[in-house]
Model the fold of this input.
Amino acid sequence: MPPDSLEDIYRRRRSTRWQDRLRRLLAPPAPLVMNPAEPKDFPLGRWNLYLGGAGSRPAGYVNLDLFPLPGVDVAADAEQLPFRGNLFQRVECDAVLEHVRRPEQVMAEIERVLAPGGYLHVVTPFCHPFHEYPKDYRRYTLDGLKELAGGFEPIAEGWRTGPTATLLVFAIEYAKLLLPWRAWRGLVHGVLGWLLFPLRYLDLLLLRAPRAGRIGNHCYLWLRKPGG
Done:
């Protein structure tokens, strides 16, 4: 059976059909916790841009994604942003760069549309399963991510999700890999998700360790455009 289209996935997330509502009710919690030490207080401006936010409505942002899906304000390619220069005070680029063909071009476009003194928040996976949107091209270490910083000033870096998240997401995907039928894979995903998710809180301790990044799940950078 071919994989679901992105439209199908987001339709089910918002559908009021009882089957879809039951599926959402039974879905296990995410097998990860966010790093509480990650900075979050850099200021928003009058105009702010969120890249890749389909299916959500991030408050205070113009939400741009590749497809005109629920929650998307502007459907466009991040390699050619349809905005004038120096417009946005803050840009969120959360789990996007692994899906684009030319991440250097995306970063150059973000730098163009970000106002001097504005902030860019970039999050990318390191140890994380393959996931298409619509393609999946690469993974990043923190050093690799900083190579894309270009003319930005790095002001904060670290790991958003840690080693336990890595182990849990791979354990679930490994178990699903062993099963030939989609219904069985869905069942195993739900059962293992509920059984394993309490372990995610170990990352609240492990993210403090200096070696957590050796098998970290997602890393982040906060960058500032000079000037302003």
Notes: The beta strands are 48-51, 62-65, 74-75, 88-94, 114-125, 153-161, 218-224. Residues 6-16+33-162+210-224 form a domain with the Rossmann fold fold (CATH 3.40.50.150).
